[in-house]
Design goal:
The protein has a single domain, classed as Arp2/3 complex 21 kDa subunit ARPC3 (Orthogonal Bundle), CATH 1.10.1760. Helices cover 84% and strands 0% of the residues. Helix 1 packs across helix 5 and helix 3 packs antiparallel against helix 4. The radius of gyration is 17 Å and the shape is globular.
């Protein structure tokens, strides 16, 4: 694929991510799910153009979301976790394939997610639990929340891998 096509695809994916993030303004109750949906699209850039182009697409989409959208919850989740997740997922899975130890990939994903969520928590503590009622927040201890987030990440990663496999097997042959 030529550099012009890669640039065009990366820009279109960034615009698509921003458009999907706008849904968070329309339906604020599912902002985390919308950020996860927007985070799926950079995987296509990773597969078709490579990680370098995906980084550019992610940075552009995150910047557009943070600058243009009036509600910042979805762009923040996209910028701090879901937008770059496909990039480091691909890098970690390549590494685990190279060294032959699948546990390394899972440890890297969980550690990376913990760092991203911790940074997001430290910077934006007030809006972090915006969608969770205060009664539930006060009763659930932090380690339980961490375990729930780890289980959610594992489920998201497995579903993401299935979606990537479907893209490679069914959609990619029709595009090329």
């Amino acid at each position: 694929m030529s550099r012009t096509r890669k640039l065009t695809l990366s820009a279109l994916i960034a615009a698509l991510c921003t458009a999907v993030m706008y849904l968070g303004v329309l339906v604020p109750r599912v902002s985390l799910a919308i950020a996860a949906m927007a985070g799926i699209f950079p995987a296509a850039v990773v597969i078709l153009c490579g990680s370098g182009w995906a980084v550019g697409s992610f940075v552009t989409a995150a910047a557009l979301g943070l600058l243009l959208l009036p509600v910042k919850t979805v762009p923040l989740w996209f910028a701090f976790f879901f937008g770059h997740y496909p990039i480091w997922k691909a890098l970690l899975e390549r590494l685990q394939t190279r060294i032959g130890k699948p546990l390394i990939g899972w440890i890297g994903k969980l550690a990376g997610a913990a760092v991203c969520v911790a940074v997001l928590w430290l910077l934006f503590r007030g809006s972090f639990f915006a969608g969770i009622p205060a009664a539930i927040r006060s009763r659930v201890p932090l380690p339980v929340i961490a375990l729930i987030l780890a289980a959610a990440l594992i489920a998201y990663d497995i579903a993401f891998s299935i979606l990537i496999g479907y893209f490679r097997d069914k959609i990619l042959p029709r595009i090329k």
